[in-house]
Structures are given as structure tokens and as C-alpha cells.
Amino acid sequence: MFLVKRDNFNKTYIIKGLMIALFFSAFIYLAHFNLESKLFNTILGLLGIYFVLISKKQTLFFTGFFIGLFWFYWVGNSFVYYDLAYLKPIVPFAFALVYGFLFFLISIVEFTFYKAAILFIFSYIHPFGFNWFVPDLVFINSYFKADKPSFAIVLISLFLFINFKTKWKVFALLPLLYIYTNSGEYIDNPKLKISMPQINVNQDRKWAKDNLSNVIDENFRLIEEAIKEKKDLIILPETAFPIVLNKDEFVLTRLFELSKHINIVVGALYYEDNNYYNTTYYFNKMKAKIAKKVVLVPFGEKIPLPKFMVDFINNTFYNGAQDYKEAKTPTDFEINGIKFRNAICYEATSETLFKNLDGIKYMIATSNNAWFTPSIEPTLQNLLLKYYAKRYDITILHSVNGSENGIIRP
């Protein structure tokens, strides 16, 4: 009898945790299936946070567990291309456990204000440097502003709502009027004729030696087409040339020649001093500028662990491959008198790339999402780019392989 009751008890925690995680994750899936609604996103976001603040730690463990799955189930997809397909189901489970533990910590102290404070702090905590869980992102397509001060106001309002007597509860929500917004996007395009051709090369074919010449030829064709269309600039995605470009004299020479007629921004690898860099190359009038990636993908481009563990993981799982090397500071390009901050995939969703902009109003971001598609990863990335575009008042030109290109405006 006791075991039956205990089993039902555990199921209740699981079901409650699942429902809260659904409230917290709905905005991603509504965006993914083009069913966005500011009203639904606002209500569901408030409900998700409200139930986090009033729930017990057992429920919150399962809330975090399911959030880890709903937000990041796609991370395991990339391991297939490292011949580590057996890790595909294990990686999402690891994410689920990490976020389950973090949400469990929210309720160690059964005090609403403590829970609210810890949830706010979580917006600054990034396990192993992975920063794609941003709690305030839930309001990115809502009637509320999506930023840290506004998130703090939401938490304070809900804390007051929970603790006020019934007849005063409505007054607890009045601060939410301060963060209400219904403004549209500010349309701001650089005064350039820009080509961002849509590229969809499957990841299993992108680096295949027998397909390399096809990929290179197609890139040249796209550049030549942009020249015929009298474009000022063409932007091709991250590692559009899947080679160490500064070591390939033939491709370099051809790009220099084409740069007489058009500005070219393209992703490729760069080798220097026994280190490999994920980089963006900018070609203009027979000259090149190199932008090395600053923020590397945890466990994808760099293992964020002590060196002895890094060596063990690389030797065991990645056939002895070495981590990429990162640059210390972001790189800016000046194209026809307009300054652009460069960002490569993951780093375009990092605070680091938005520091010291010095009036720069545009960012060129390049990505290769073929690692993870089909999944919600491109949608979550796009929502994060929108979040940072609004926070820092910057227009992001996003050129992607494997998912849709876009211009993300403040």
C-alpha cells in the first residue's frame, strides 16, 4: 500500500514538472512552427515562472530535467558526425540532469523570495560555458521587454502576487505595466546591396573529400552570380569553404581575383603557429582580413576542462584531434565605409561579442547549422540573436548553412 502511494506521489512531481517545463518552453516551439502569439507567450511565460516560485524542490527537479530536454535535445545530433552516434541519446540526458539539478537548487530554501533571486541569478550561470539557457528569453516574443531589468520586475511582481492577501493581489501585478511593450521592429539596413545566398549542404557531405570540389565550385558560382547582379557584398556561411583556406593557394588566388569586383565575407579554417582557428575571411580589392573566433563551442570546438581531462577526451572520443584556438578580442570589418562586428555561430549569442561596439550598428554572423538539423536549434538560435539585437540595438545579418538565412533587427 505504501509503495503504491509513493509511486503516485512521484508521478505527481513528474507531471507537475513536465507542465511547468512546457510553459517555459512553449515560446520556442510556437516560433518553430510559426504559431507565435504575443498573448500566449506572455501568459505561458508568467505561468511558468509563477509555478517555479510556488513549487517544491522535487517538482522543480523534473521541471529542470524536462527544460533541459525541450531546449537542448538537439545537441546530441552533432555527435553522429564524429562517429559517436551512441552518445546521441546520452548527451540530452546529461543536459536534462544538469538543469534538473540547477532547478532543484532553486527550492533548497522554501522561501519565495529566495527562489526568485536564484532564478534571476541562473540567467548569469552557464554550466561549462554553455550560455543558451536564458530564462528571460521566454518573453522575447511577448508583450514584455526581454532583458535582465524587466525579468527582475516580473520576478518581483510575482513574488508580491504570491504573498499579498487576496484583495491586494491585483496591485502586485501593476509593475508589469512598466515593462509592457508593443513596438514593432526598427527597420535598419546597411546602405549596401548584399547577397546572402541560401546554402544547404548536408553535414555528412560538407567535409567529404569526394565532394570538396563541388562545394568550392558552387561557392565560386554564387560569388560570380552576385557580381553579375552588381551586389556590393556577398556573405557566405561559417566554413563555407571546408578547408584550411590560408594553405590553399589556388582558392585564395581565385578569391583575391574576385574581390576586385565585390566584397566577400566567407567562413573557412585558418592555420597559424601550430594552431587551427575557426575564422571569417574578408576579401576586398586583392586584400584579406582575418577574423578569428573568440567564443568557442563547449565540447564542440574546445573542451572546458583541465588539460589532463582535455587530452583524455580528445584522444578517446575525437581521435586525438586538438581543440581550436580562440582569439582574445572580436574583429570588425569596414565595408564601403560601414563598420560590421564579425561573429561566428555560437559566439553571436554571447555577451562577449557585444562589448565595446563603439557605435557599430551592424553584425555579420555566420553559422553552420547542418550539425543539428532537423531540430529546433535554428529557432532557438534565432530567438537568442533577436534577444541580443534588441538589448544592444544592433542589426544582425545572419548567413547560415542548413537553415534559413535572416536579418535580425532590434
From TrEMBL:
Residues 197-410 form the CN hydrolase domain. Signal peptide: none annotated. It is found in: Cell membrane. GO terms for cellular component: plasma membrane. It is a multi-pass membrane protein. InterPro entries: Apolipo_AcylTrfase, C-N_Hydrolase, C-N_Hydrolase_sf, Lnt_campylobact, Lnt_membrane_dom. Its main location: membrane. The chain crosses the membrane at residues 12-31, 37-53, 60-84, 90-109, 116-134, 146-164. One of its GO terms (molecular function) is N-acyltransferase activity. Keywords: Acyltransferase, Cell inner membrane, Cell membrane, Lipoprotein, Membrane, Transferase, Transmembrane, Transmembrane helix. This is Apolipoprotein N-acyltransferase. It comes from Halarcobacter ebronensis. The lineage of its organism: Bacteria, Pseudomonadati, Campylobacterota, Epsilonproteobacteria, Campylobacterales.
